[in-house]
Amino acid sequence: MRLILLGPPGAGKGTQAQHLVQRHGIVQLSTGDMLRAAVKAGTPIGLKAKDIMAAGGLVPDEVVVGIIADRIEEADARNGFILDGFPRTVPQAEALDELLKSKGLALDAVIELRVNEGALLRRVETRIAEMKARGEAVRADDTPEVLSQRLANYRSQTEPLVDYYGEKRKLATIDGMKSIEEVTADIKRVLDAVSESAAPPASSGTKSRAKARKPAAKKAKVKAAKAKTAKTKTAKAKKVAKAASARPTAKKAKATKKVARKAAKSVKAVKKTTKKAAPKRGAAKKTRKSAKPAARKAKTAARNGVAKTARKGSRTSSRPVAKVTKKRAKAAGRLTKRG
Fold first, then answer.
1. Dihedral pair phi/psi, residue 149, rounded to 5°
2. How many C-beta atoms lie closer than 10 Å to residue 292's C-beta?
3. pLDDT tens for residues 236-264?
């Protein structure tokens, strides 16, 4: 995350910069601190700035840009940085853009903290009054007069950066008159949206490799499209062949169904005829069944009749003989009595 905080003195840039450092693990780069560190380290840029500062002159933009170029190469700035106090002018902003471009980097966002100058002056007056009431010393540059001069310098030099970064679509304006917590939350929302929408910038080497890969990717894409077309055609041909082979089978199935329907009709007709004939067979069976007992009765009666006749005959034939015998015996008895 590479950021710039813009706003007049007293807008709260330092406070919000500390929140961003803690949240994103980035470093705050102040031009004053970087100049002093470069001078102390004795770097070529630091020595050059030392001579200019010792002579009472203003450090030129190219020296400041050189110090920034060295600083952002250090390990703690790899995750990103917040520039505080730079750029102050449009030429400095243009020089910074060239520096970042040469390193394959870019700014993620420029946050402007917009405040009311009259309210800022009243804040300073209130703070000075409170410090005096507590018996604290007031800094010589912490007065309404000095603040008014600094605000005028900001309007003339730094405020044009709002238009510069606005045209580049990097600017996000936050109401700096809100509470510290509300301003922090607004900045977080802006940066979350930037993180979601912005792609990480590619280095020059990465760009070259991507450019070299484009023809190969294009060829692969064309090849894949051709393979897809061929696959579609093959699938279509298989579908047509399958449909064609299925037609005779369908015809055969239709003919088989027709034959089956005819057979079913024949079976139905036979069953119908059988049903009609069934009562006649039942009647015959019933007649035969009822005739059997009658025959048995007739046979029994005939048998009984013969036996009865035989018995009667035997009785009839034996009666006269018995009678004659009795008569003769009776007559013989009478004769005997007479004699």
1. -65, -40
2. 10
3. 767 766 665 555 555 655 666 776 677 66
| Known active-site residue 139 | yes
- The one catalytic residue in 88, 123, 170, 178 is 88
Does the annotation mark 268 as catalytic? no
Options 13, 48, 50, 71, the catalytic residue: 13
Tell me, what DSSP letter sits at residue 178?
S
Which of 188, 197, 161 shows the shortest CA–CA distance to 83?
A: 161
Residues facing residue 2 across a β-bridge: 81
Active site residue 13: yes
Predicted TM-score of the model (pTM): 0.53
Domains and CATH numbers, the chain: 2-26+79-203 (3.40.50.300)
What is the spatial distance between Cα 66 and Cα 70, in angstroms, rounded to a whole number? 6
Instruction: Please tell me the distance from the alpha carbon of residue 65 to that of residue 42, in angstroms, as a whole number.
Output: 17
Encode pLDDT of 58-70 as tens digits: 778 888 888 889 8
Set 139, 211, 214, 334: catalytic member: 139
Active-site residue (options: 36, 114, 150, 170): 150
248: cis peptide before it, omega within 30°? no
- Residue ranges in the chain whose pLDDT is less than 70: 56, 141, 198-223, 230, 237, 240-256, 259-260, 263-264, 266-295, 297-339
Which residues lie below 8 Å from residue 317, measured CB to CB, with a gap of 6+?
none
Convert 83-112 to b/e letters by CB count within 10 Å (16 or more is b): bbbbbbbeebbebbeeebeeeeeebbbbbb
3 φ/ψ angles, rounded to the nearest 5 degrees? -130, 160
Active site residue 127: yes
Catalytic, out of 101, 122, 127, 223:
127
DSSP string, 10-27: TSSHHHHHHHHHHHHT-E
